[in-house]
Structure formats: structure tokens, C-alpha cells
Design goal:
The chain is an all-alpha fold and 181 residues long. It is built from nine helices and no strands. The chain has two domains: 73 residues, Rna Polymerase Sigma Factor, Chain: A (Orthogonal Bundle); 89 residues, Winged helix-like DNA-binding domain superfamily/Winged helix DNA-binding domain (Arc Repressor Mutant, subunit A), CATH 1.10.10.10. The chain starts with 9 loop residues before the first helix and ends with a helix.
Length: 181
């Protein structure tokens, strides 16, 4: 979301920031694993962003700027210092059911989702974070680069390594499940 060069007012901030609320809240839920903490984190993010809006450089990416404020606020919080990230089960995409849904198919579906959640939790924070921003929040590589303050090439290589690590964890979990481990 590029912001044209114009005077930046509180009304302009509201017009830019409010459409991002749900996305920022979702990201905060994933980071904090707690509804109340996520709400506090988003509130803190908006307060910091409004206070610092005069320093926002018009013509740059406002969405990435907001995500960066939220991420930095999280990392400097008590929760962020624990470095834990989980998936938000409330915001999963709907999966198309088989023509005949059975209790067994529902159980298998839930087990698969849980296996992916567990594998993601086992990944290092920098891998979980980049997978979340790219594959769930659908930020562009450039927006991720600006959010995490890393070069775009690093975004691509880290995303590649994160996906590879996730595949490997899932492969091990599937093999372990076959052998009753």
C-alpha cells in the first residue's frame, strides 16, 4: 500500500490504517497466542503508529510500516521475549469437504491440521514468522523485506529454507505416525 506524497493528517492515518486492522490483529494473534494480548498489541501498534505518523515517509509502503511497528512491539514485549508463535485456528481457510463427510474423514482432517500446527511450532521463530507473513498474510517479498528489515534476497532464501524445514518436519512426523511413534 503505497502512500502518495501529500500532507499526512490524522484523517489520512485513519484512512490508511483502519483497513489493515483485521490483518494486523490476525498477525498479533499468531504471535501472542492470546486474544487479550493480541488486542493490547494491536492497540499499542496503532498508538505508536499515530504518534509516529509525522515521521512516516510518504511514498513508501504504509502496510509494511504498520507490520514492522507491530512486530517490533511484540519482540520488545514480555511475550515476544519468550519467542513463541502459534497458528490461529479461528482464521483457517475453509476446506472443501468430501462428498460424503464421515466421522473418520473429519478425524483425519483434524489430525492433519494438528500435525501442521505442531510442525510450525517446532520451527525457529524466523522461519515461522516468514511463513506466516508470506503464506498466511500474503505480504509481497518487498513488504516482508521492509517489515523484517532484511534484503529481498534474504526473504526469498529464508522462505525457501523455512518451507524445506517444514516439509522435513512433516515428513518425519508422517513416518513416525506410520511406525506408531
Amino acid at each position: 500500500m503505497e502512500v502518495p506524497d501529500q500532507s499526512l493528517s490524522a484523517a489520512a492515518f485513519e484512512d490508511l490504517a483502519m483497513p489493515l486492522f483485521d490483518q494486523l490483529y490476525n498477525f498479533a494473534r499468531w504471535l501472542t497466542q492470546d486474544t487479550a494480548e493480541a488486542e493490547d498489541l494491536v492497540q499499542e501498534t496503532y498508538a505508536k503508529a499515530l504518534r509516529g505518523f509525522s515521521s512516516f515517509q510518504a511514498g513508501t509502503n504504509f502496510r509494511a510500516w504498520m507490520y514492522r511497528i507491530l512486530r517490533n512491539s511484540f519482540l520488545s514485549s514480555r511475550t515476544g521475549l519468550k519467542i513463541t508463535v502459534a497458528l490461529d485456528p479461528d482464521n483457517e481457510e475453509d476446506i472443501l469437504p468430501a462428498e460424503t463427510t464421515t466421522p473418520e474423514s473429519i478425524l483425519v482432517e483434524e489430525a492433519d491440521r494438528e500435525m501442521v500446527r505442531q510442525a510450525l511450532v517446532e520451527l525457529p521463530l524466523h522461519f515461522r514468522e516468514i511463513l506466516l507473513l508470506c503464506d498466511v498474510e500474503e505480504l509481497s517479498y518487498q513488504e516482508i523485506s521492509e517489515t523484517l528489515a532484511i534484503p529481498a534476497g534474504t526473504v526469498m532464501s529464508r522462505l525457501f529454507r523455512a518451507r524445506k524445514a517444514l516439509r522435513e518436519l512433516l515428513r518425519k512426523k508422517i513416518q513416525g505416525a506410520r511406525h506408531g511413534l
